[in-house]
């Protein structure tokens, strides 16, 4: 045992802090800076000495509950494999030139804050009863930081550390995991199937996996992780790779305010008990949350997005794309918002008062997929009320989905109707029929297109007040028949002879003609038997053959208009 080691043992046995910086009369030395003072004999310890002090008798029996060594230069490996140390071990602001091996060891606590590990840390299956700290400028290089299956009763904190060869922490268990302002690069970053009873904090961290890849192996992989409280990614930067949360279970919020992920965010099948907050986040690839269940809000206000995929996901509260207090997302020109099969309680956007009533604000990308998208309410924030947009706004919104089906229109119409606005609801239904007409013509189904066109111009597809277009047709056709009769000298002379008060004939003749024309137009209904008998003219004494032909066509038109009206009132024209 060297003189320095004897001094450290004496301090440890007496429960004192073995501060080798003070022993060497120096300030705290910066790790990994090649300072020659690190090699002064007054601070050099052998790894074998630390191993023996912690694990061998009689030293182990004389250890206090806390062993603190600061400012050491440790030569050789410290190996505590499968050893049980009934003490909290603190090795702060020290340098290690060989691996620190803690696999399957048991300790009361472990604090390696501010230390430099030149060849990594192997802590697979390490058990720490309290906290495991590797923070405050700690540096791990030369080998992966292996925390696979680590079990900590308290926090695992790497706050402010620099991990330069990757981090593997699959199946880790801890109360909290704190990686705020941590830098991890040069290898995989994995917490697959980890279980965290509190929160996981990655706020302000910089994460640079070794290889740019769409594979989870070279990314920030949190698949199947279970976090009882918050996953905090606020201000974090993932400059390579994707943040993976497939099958994750997050008890509260996933907070990504200002977070940056170069290759995106994938959380298929995730269960999020609170909200997904992506305000001001920036992504190079479209985040994807297919078949996820988010109990709270999804807030993408001010986010910079190349797209967003929420296929078959459930949002228990608000899908927020801005509001009166939050800016709209910043979509790329080719961005797609995929809401296929998505369910939301409320949708809310931010309108733009400088646009006309038909134009969509920046809240919405140029392309949508709203097939199967369902929601219970339209947002009603002051000045950004989705319930009171112009009918053309709803039409333009739905037309941003290049694929046509009736369901998105029926969904919107149903919500508008339920919120007490049948006029806007009918305008949406009318727009659906219009688009169906255009789609039929575009694909060459001219029969369907012509039928829809006829329904449009005659009875307004049988939708609400649009149905009353048929009255204009009835009036117009009846008026044409009136003109035919008024200008028919043969009809006028035949009726003048029968008129009860000839002095009034010229005054009432046009009125009589309109009634006769209307009687001939309306199917089934007989307004006056006199009109019926007038058109019963087999010898052509009152009308010539051409006039009889016209009124025959008019009667046919009346039947067709009547059938269309009956179909509209019975709902046939709105059936699928």
**Mean pLDDT across residues:** 88
Q: Radius of gyration from the CA trace?
A: 40 Å
Number of helices: 13
Percentage of residues in strands: 15-25%
Distance between the termini: 90 Å
Poorly predicted runs: none
The largest β sheet comes out as: 23 strands, parallel
Keywords:
576 residues, 11-stranded parallel sheet, alpha/beta
How does this structure look, described?
The protein is of the alpha/beta class and 576 residues long. Among the domains are: 297-444, no CATH class; 467-567. Helices cover 28% and strands 24% of the residues. It has 13 helices and 50 strands. The strands form six sheets. It has a 23-stranded parallel sheet that branches. An eleven-stranded parallel sheet has the order 2-4-7-10-14-18-22-26-30-34-38. Strands 5-8-11-15-19-23-27-31-35 form a nine-stranded parallel sheet. α9 crosses α11. The radius of gyration is 40 Å and the shape is rod-shaped.
Short précis:
The protein is an alpha/beta fold.
What's the layout of helices and strands?
Blueprint: H1 3-13, E1 18-19, H2 20-23, E2 44-46, H3 47-55, H4 59-62, E3 66-70, E4 73-75, E5 78-79, E6 84-92, E7 95-96, E8 100-101, E9 106-111, E10 116-117, E11 121-122, E12 127-128, E13 132-133, E14 139-140, E15 145-146, E16 151-152, E17 155-157, E18 162-163, E19 167-168, E20 173-174, E21 176-178, E22 183-185, E23 189-190, E24 195-196, E25 200-201, E26 206-208, E27 220-221, E28 226-227, E29 231-232, E30 237-238, E31 243-244, E32 249-250, E33 254-255, E34 260-261, E35 265-266, E36 271-272, E37 276-277, E38 282-283, E39 293-294, E40 298-299, E41 304-305, E42 308-309, E43 314-321, E44 330-331, E45 336-338, E46 343-349, E47 367-369, E48 374-378, E49 380-381, E50 384-385, H5 391-399, H6 407-418, H7 422-442, H8 446-459, H9 469-486, H10 489-496, H11 505-521, H12 529-535, H13 545-570
Helix pairs in contact: 5-7, 6-7, 7-8, 9-11, 9-13, 11-12
């Amino acid at each position: 045992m060297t003189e320095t080691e004897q001094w450290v043992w004496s301090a440890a046995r007496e429960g004192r802090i073995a501060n080798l910086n003070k022993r060497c009369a120096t300030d705290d030395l910066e790790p990994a800076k090649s300072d020659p003072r690190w090699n002064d004999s007054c601070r050099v310890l052998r790894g074998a000495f630390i191993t023996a002090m912690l694990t061998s008798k009689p030293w182990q029996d004389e250890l206090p509950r806390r062993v603190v060594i600061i400012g050491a230069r440790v030569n050789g490996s410290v190996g505590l494999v499968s050893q049980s140390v009934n003490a909290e071990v603190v090795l702060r602001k020290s340098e290690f030139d060989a691996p620190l091996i803690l696999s399957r060891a048991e300790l009361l606590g472990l604090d390696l804050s501010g230390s430099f590990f030149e060849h990594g840390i192997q802590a697979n299956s390490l058990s720490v009863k309290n906290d495991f700290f590797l923070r405050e400028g700690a540096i791990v290089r030369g080998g992966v930081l292996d925390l696979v299956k680590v079990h900590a009763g308290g926090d695992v904190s790497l706050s402010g550390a620099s991990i330069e060869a990757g981090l593997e922490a699959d199946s880790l268990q801890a109360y909290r995991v704190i990686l705020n302002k941590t830098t991890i690069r040069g290898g995989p970053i994995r917490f697959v199937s980890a279980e965290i009873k509190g929160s996981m904090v990655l706020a302000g961290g910089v994460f640079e996996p070794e290889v740019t890849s769409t594979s989870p192996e070279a990314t920030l992989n949190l698949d199947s992780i279970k976090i009882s409280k918050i996953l905090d990614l606020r201000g974090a930067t993932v400059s390579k790779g994707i943040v993976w949360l497939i099958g994750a279970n997050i008890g509260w919020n996933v907070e990504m305010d200002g977070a940056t992920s170069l290759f995106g965010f994938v959380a298929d099948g995730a269960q999020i008990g609170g909200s997904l907050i992506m305000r001001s986040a920036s992504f190079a690839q479209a985040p994807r949350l297919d078949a996820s269940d988010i109990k709270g809000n999804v807030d993408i206000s001010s986010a910079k997005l190349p797209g967003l995929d929420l296929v078959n996901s459930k949002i228990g509260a608000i899908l927020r794309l801005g509001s009166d207090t939050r800016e709209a997302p910043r979509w790329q020109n080719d961005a797609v918002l995929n809401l296929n099969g998505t369910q939301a309680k409320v949708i809310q956007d931010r309108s733009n008062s400088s646009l006309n009533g038909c134009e969509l604000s920046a809240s919405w990308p140029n392309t949508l997929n709203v097939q199967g998208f369902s929601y219970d309410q339209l947002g009603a924030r002051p000045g950004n009320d989705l319930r009171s947009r112009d009918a053309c706004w709803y039409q333009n919104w739905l037309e941003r989905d290049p694929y046509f089906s009736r369901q998105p229109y029926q969904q919107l119409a149903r919500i508008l109707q339920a919120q007490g606005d049948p006029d806007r609801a009918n305008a949406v239904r009318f727009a659906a029929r219009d688009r169906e007409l255009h789609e039929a013509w575009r694909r060459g189904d001219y029969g369907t297109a012509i039928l829809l066109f006829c329904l449009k111009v005659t009875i307004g597809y049988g939708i609400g007040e649009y149905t009353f277009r048929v009255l204009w047709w009835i009036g117009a056709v009846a008026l044409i028949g009136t003109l035919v009769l008024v200008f028919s000298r043969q009809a006028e002379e035949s009726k003048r002879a029968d008129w009860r008060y000839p002095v009034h004939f010229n005054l009432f003749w046009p009125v009589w003609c309109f009634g006769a024309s209307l009687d001939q137009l309306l199917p089934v209904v007989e307004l006056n038997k006199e009109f019926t008998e007038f058109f019963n003219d087999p010898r052509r004494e009152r009308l010539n053959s051409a006039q009889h032909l016209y009124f025959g066509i008019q009667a046919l038109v009346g039947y067709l208009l009547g059938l269309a009206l009956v179909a509209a009132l019975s709902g046939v024209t709105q059936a699928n």
